[in-house]
Amino acid sequence: MKSPFLSVEDISLDLDGKRVLDHVSFRMKEGDVLGIIGRSGAGKTVLMHLIRGIDPPPSSGRILFHVSSCDRCGRVDLRSFAGSRCPSCSGPMVPADIDLWEEGSNGAGERLRERTAIMFQRTFGLYGNDRVIENVIRALDDIGYSSDDVVSRAADLVDRVRLSHRMMHIARDLSGGEKQRVVLARQLARDPLLLLADEPTGTLDPDTAGLVHDLLLSATRTGRMGMIVTSHFTNVIESLADRTILLSEGRVVDEGKPREIISRFMIQPGEIETPVKEAGGKTILSARDVSKKYLSVDRGVVRAVQEVTFEVGEGEIFGLVGQSGAGKTTLSRIAGGIIEPTSGELLIRIGDDWVDMTKPGIENRGRAKPYIGFLHQEYDLYPHHTVLDNLTDAIGLQYPRELGIRMASLCLRMAGFGEAAMQDLLHKMPGQLSEGERHRVALAQVLIREPRLVILDEPTGTMDPLTKLEVRDSILHARKEMGETFVIVSHDIAFVKDICDRVAFMRGGKIVKVGPPGEVLEDSDTEPSRGKNQAAAPET
Predict the structure, then answer these.
(1) pLDDT beyond 70 at 524
(2) Cα 247 to Cα 153: distance, rounded to the nearest angstrom
């Protein structure tokens, strides 16, 4: 049977002469997930702030936490820990009822606030220029966590919110959903007894919102943490809450199972508010009228790429195919920021910002290039370095070696290596690997830089059929596990048909057809059927 945890008793709050909360009462037990639903202005956020202990105090009523407290060091924990020994000092844990807003509580209220986490509505509260893991380390430093294993603990928290593949990303360059997951990791660093989630996924797309919901529920199950969640979205409450209260004009007007309360909420008179959705979409790379010409001594002006327009979706495997000289490699090098186009626009989405790759500078191409991985056809590994050193040297790791091993293992797993083979693999030399294994290590060397977009130039080369299958599986595995987006430049039509979601066929520096591989490459193993859209050969 669950122990009691929280009692909100007859809470009222007046602000500027207006009553915003009116005799609100409810109870929670340890590990409960309570949903609060209501229209904008119903008092949801104000109530959350009161439970967190954020000023102003209530006008009347009280908020009681039923916990256990250490007689020796004052540590606060769940009531079910009463009778045990304090994990901090081994003192006795005794039952305690703490009134959060009672004056003269000998610091108990402040210690309770330290064990309460909150995710604010549309506010990420991150150190924007710090890396993901540095943001989590700062949260651990704030609570005085031991410095001996702080990096390892931070990496555990990043892994817990499924962001190990973004560990070294600058926080400002994350998407909205990724930022929200870093916020969650920072809050979980507190080892909270209660998490207050105020519209935690209101600006996220459905897939990302579903992932955050799963992480929130996992956090409550793993640590017996309670959670109070507010939302305008009825599906959020239904998917997260065990029990729901309906707020209207600061009063609790109904309480019960989520589905029952939601049905009553939906038939209330008046218009239901539709929250503002975050701008952006699925596209991660957008090219508009991109051209590249250069002067050749023997050929004159070469128009390598001519007014090319295409888009690549996030998580897509996009192929560039065509005969030699069609402009594939030139276009891929423009997309990778290696060369500049002569004209046109090429944008890549970094986090929620669109960055113009045609413009130099740290806020344009310089900002985007670290998030683009490029695996050349003639890739190479350091022959006298182990696989582990090849991988960690790729990022110039400044953190403990244990973190380097962790990141290297993660990327090898994402590149398709099994757990059993991986530990032995880390200490092998490249010369001891098969061609397929070397290619997967080279892919892991790209993935360890945590790119948003990976460009593969002729990834299969002259490989035998079985090795091609290994490479295909490693790409698909990285896409599934890390959400990576791939652009594949290849002459290998069979491989492209097997792996790509869409294909752009190039001829004479132009894209002449874009679509599913089966349609674009339907009539030939080398090029699409000729027709009225066929481009002329490039001018020289």
Answers:
(1) no
(2) 39
Task: Reply yes or no on whether the pLDDT at 211 is more than 60.
Answer: yes
Looking at per-residue pLDDT, the higher value among 419 and 86 belongs to 86
Strands 243-248 and 251-256: antiparallel
Of 217, 256, 255, 264, nearest to 236 by C-alpha is: 217
Higher pLDDT, 479 or 419: 479
What are the structural domain ranges in the chain? 117-191, 283-379+451-520
Q: What proportion of the chain, given as a percentage, has pLDDT over 70?
A: 89
Q: Which string of DSSP letters, residue by residue, matches 359-422?
A: S-STTTHHHHGGGEEEE-TT----TTS-HHHHHHHTTT--S-HHHHHHHHHHHHHHTT--HHHH
Stretch 312-335: mean pLDDT: 89
What pLDDT is recorded for position 205? 59
Q: Which two tokens stand for residue 344?
A: 């046109």
The C-alpha atoms of residue 69 and residue 94 are separated, in whole angstroms, by 5
Bridge partners (DSSP) of residue 227 are: 33, 195
Q: Which of 173-177, 231-235, 327-331, 476-480 has the lowest mean pLDDT?
A: 231-235
Please, are residues 525 and 321 in contact by the beta-carbon 8 Å criterion?
no
- Residue 36: beta bridge partners? 230, 245
Across 110-184, where does the E strand assignment appear?
Answer: 116-119
Fold classification of 283-379+451-520 (topology level): Rossmann fold (3.40.50)
Q: Which pLDDT score, from 0 to 100, does residue 62 have?
A: 93
Q: How far apart are the first and last CA of the chain?
A: 82
Closest CA to 157 of 130, 187, 125: 187
In this predicted structure, the answer to whether residue 279 has a pLDDT above a threshold of 70 is no
User: Is the pLDDT at 532 greater than 50, yes or no?
Assistant: no
Write b or e for each residue in 28-61: b if 16 or more Cβ atoms lie within 10 A of its Cβ, otherwise e. Answer: bbbbbbbbbbbbeebbbbbbbbbbbbeeeebeeb
Exposed/middle/buried for residue 113 (C-beta within 10 Å: 0-12, 13-18, 19+):
middle
Which residue do the tokens 């037990």 mark?
29
